[in-house]
């Protein structure tokens, strides 16, 4: 199972279609632009006689190009069907080869046929590239406000495939979850046993609707050859673990997303002090950057050593003799040797990112903040934790946003303790300049993911089994940091791949439960409400461990959260989100030129 390979295979079939030989145009919508751009480079597309890549609605702005054929890749939304009908009434290309990323209802196909008065449509096909493949084992659906929608789902029986992509209503968001998951299963050619987290209404509704759609499918789409070992599909709920998205991160990919926001494989650095013109936006993609592919899960210290090694190798080749001992030394070296920048743009990019991450770690006192976060997440020591929290809340060099995160973690850990401490915490937050609406987020988190709504014991007995895992000292100026926290998802997955199907924790919607050890091979896990890069990192590590046994886990969610986007979405559930909380992980449509 490989979601990047699955999407790429569809795209290769389109640009290599035997009916599309010769010069052609590739017409996309905003969402398929993103889907394509994160798995395939523009240079690769151009190698296959693609003369032009543009949005479907942009064709009306230029003259006819009848010497070109058009390959059209669209999501099957009402809006896109209307745009396509308009295009066919006034065609700008000689032929149209149309590919929808999901199921197209018959009535929509009939409308397209009626609009094709000039008979320029050669084919209409369904290629299930209806999700964003971030890595080989991580995908998301680019759904914002998914947490709020889980609190007010419409009846699953109202779910339908075609919706206007611009309408953010709860049942439309629910429908999009269903559509995306069906596309994932179809692209991977899996018809799995579907299970859901008991106690989660949203997980159960989603699991049952996906199962119902599979059962009702009449065209044989899911009639795959039955494997020896049945695939498993688990639907979990973010509410059962509100801790993981709130924590500071120290592995490269997760750290970039937490501090700078990684959106559609791009990092916006234009507001970084002293940033060079060529570094105002950089691309971080494991599919096009070999260094990032190798180091994306490296902790910050090891990352520094890896970048320093590349700089040292360049020095040896050019016989320069700068004394490089720290991140700042590397930044100065890159500035002083323009030839290095031009010959090694990738390394220059990573030096720039490291420099900004190091600056933020220092100015925001993130080492101190992170240590308390880890203690709150992993151990039970109320008196010491309260004393440390009060000290952090009084610290003038800690950002209010980070103080709020610490307060939320404290409240989740000790919600059954005296309310007196929580009042003190709230008063200290107010003294730090946080508005009452932001401070209310503490209560919102307790309503969203407190003990009364969680399915399991989030904290368990980890206080008794507390352990410390130090990150390696990487560079001068990057001290050891601790990463005690292991997402509960991983403990769950470790049991699943061992064949312990956790029947007491998971319901089943399309199969019979047979007690005892089961064979497990392919596992797909979807977390309602969003996933994190920390969880993706741990899933990648687990896949390395189980690779020899032929097992594989794929992780997905409606969106990939950092702490800011997660806090923003939880705030929306109780109607008091503020702009300051919303430094989100939003995945907006990329510019067409960035393909």
TrEMBL record:
Family to which this protein belongs: Belongs to the STXBP/unc-18/SEC1 family.
PANTHER family: VESICLE PROTEIN SORTING-ASSOCIATED (PTHR11679)
Name of this chain's protein: Vacuolar protein sortingassociated protein putative
UniProt gene name: AlNc14C193G8496
Single Gene Ontology BP annotation: vesicle-mediated transport
Species, as recorded: Albugo laibachii Nc14
